[in-house]
Amino acid sequence: MSDALTKLAIAQLRDAFRAVGTSDFFEAYMALFSARMAFGTFLMLRFDAGRPPLLLDHWIEPGKLLGRPLEDYIESSYGFDPFYLHGPPPEGGGVFRLVDIAPDRFFSSEYYLQYYRGTGLCDEVGLLAPLQDGGVAHLSLNRRDGQGPFRRTELQYLQSYAPLLLELLVQHCEAVAPAPPIQPTATRPPLADAIRGHARNRLNISLTRREAQIAGLVLQGHSNGSAARLLDIATETCKVHRRNLYRKLVISSQRDLFGVFKHLL
């Protein structure tokens, strides 16, 4: 692939930089991508810890996806999104593919099967960039089943021009979406706390803090080994907590666990 920018690409970059902070930016920014790759969704968001994502703008290919994926995501299921859960991105941001950042059992999780594959999506690439006020700018590009996964040449384009694409995303996000005011009532409790509270208040079941943490990690797509590493405990210890969790809830599988707590999505 040539490193030289075409006259069209230079003109598109100029238009995008000129449109930063205006209503014309989204269309100009999307043109930088659509000229070089196909996608089924193009979503621009801001992430802030403990809060639902702020949708800045979006495009979804009309009539191609099942259900109401965007509404479900913003209302609840974002809490299981590996991009939302990724943590602070590196300085300057980066380009990430779902398969590279998802937990080791994510692709067999009920969230992935029901809320992701169930809509007809098959692949995702995201740009993540830190904002000066502590938030994270995120651009999500999804592919539909009929389009197939992103090709290597498309991923190479994103990586090659990531500094420009990320800078544009950050400048626009900081211009139109400053940090939201602090409103404790608007924050969302950590998943483990929500699980433990629901078990106690609705099911009359007392879960330990560790059992609730493991329940949340399993729902997010982590294996026993992966959950143990994150919690800095032995894998066998994690297995014991998971058996106790399942015994208390009278369940026997990750699918059953999802059924008990899916409303917390």
TrEMBL record:
Keywords: DNA-binding, Transcription, Transcription regulation
Highest taxon, organism lineage: Bacteria
Residue ranges annotated for the HTH luxR-type domain, each copy included: 200-265
Record protein name field: LuxR C-terminal-related transcriptional regulator
Record has DNA-binding as a keyword: yes
Name of one Pfam family that matches: GerE
InterPro entries reported for this sequence: Sig_transdc_resp-reg_C-effctor (IPR016032), Tscrpt_reg_LuxR_C (IPR000792), WH-like_DNA-bd_sf (IPR036388)
Keyword DNA damage: no
